[in-house]
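Section: Multi-chain targets

For targets with more than one molecule, the full set of components is provided together so that the structure can be written out for the assembly as a whole rather than chain by chain. Components appear in the order listed by the source. The example entry contains four components.
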Amino acid sequence: MALRYAILGLLSAEPMSGYDLAKWMDRGLGNIWSAHASQIYPELARMVEAGVIVEVPGDTGPRRRRVYGISDDGAADLREWLTTATLDPGGRNEALLRSVLLGRLDPRSAALSFTTEAERHRERATLHEALRDEAGTKGSPLEPLRLAFDCGARIEHALAEWAQAAADELRPPRRRSRS
Amino acid sequence: MALRYAILGLLSAEPMSGYDLAKWMDRGLGNIWSAHASQIYPELARMVEAGVIVEVPGDTGPRRRRVYGISDDGAADLREWLTTATLDPGGRNEALLRSVLLGRLDPRSAALSFTTEAERHRERATLHEALRDEAGTKGSPLEPLRLAFDCGARIEHALAEWAQAAADELRPPRRRSRS
DNA sequence: AGATGCATGTAAATAGTTACATGATTCA
DNA sequence: TGAATCATGTAACTATTTACATGCATCT
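Its structure, encoded as tokens over all components, is:
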């Protein structure tokens, strides 16, 4: 049901189309919850049937665009999930899995891989900081995701430091080296 | 294919049974990749068929226990995945999704929820630190997961700080309060 | 006129969860 | 002997991905 609540959360900020939702999943929320358009559209249909969202008729633009808004039932649902649901702690992060298994390689290859990883995370951290700052300016359309970007930036920072520490540990600085 | 590589990674440290693998997913690796026993057993069968693991016959203990080890093909597979595979950055973290949507609640409820979240993350950070330190002692069976625990500890620290910052922002300290 | 982006969907395949079935061993 | 843990699996269900189909609008 997580996809449903991700959608409800986005729609609680502003009515949107399936296409808009897919874009939010792609950018921004993507680090936290991502979904393809082909998963979003059927879910929207089920949500209408369940009464947690409604199609907003006035906003049907030039292209056959269908905009949805959250209903009172949906808002109540979301609130209940946020306050009472217990989550299983089982994570599933492919990038992290790979990073952790990098230690299985020979020390030289592993050190190199960790250095690359650290660089990648630093870049992502910078990106998220920029988004967070943009979201922090008054009236930005990204505003509802400011916390998500801040969260992403902090996690990427932590991962960059972790990967760098792993690299340093595997390849300790040689004393009296020519460099 | 991520489950396959998680299994290969664990088996590259030491031959194990499906039951052992399930336990590693539960504890330790669970924050990074988790899987139920009912998913692991069929995957092991497929992996034997693919030749990336082999059943170690000598080790079949009292209960009908089947122990698997990584094959040369499996090791090559793992190495290739670690060094060449490109990953999609799409994440899926239900706990984080909920945390981020917490901002949708009224400020008072949200602040309370963030404080609870921060406490939860602090606890998990402490747990991971303990595991990391245990894994860091020579000869510990947890040794292959030391990096995973360190990673988990760092992420939990970052999340605790994030949640605390969010809580503080929502409920700024009242000046001249009675406390 | 052709490329690109907007926009919504369906169908088939893979991945993951939940519920259940089975039986052995160890410990109180 | 009864409960807990070890140990392996199957079946049904839900979630997610990938590939495809369709068509309109805008820009070059």
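The helical segments of chain B are 2-13, 18-26, 37-50, 72-84, 94-101, 107-136, 146-170.
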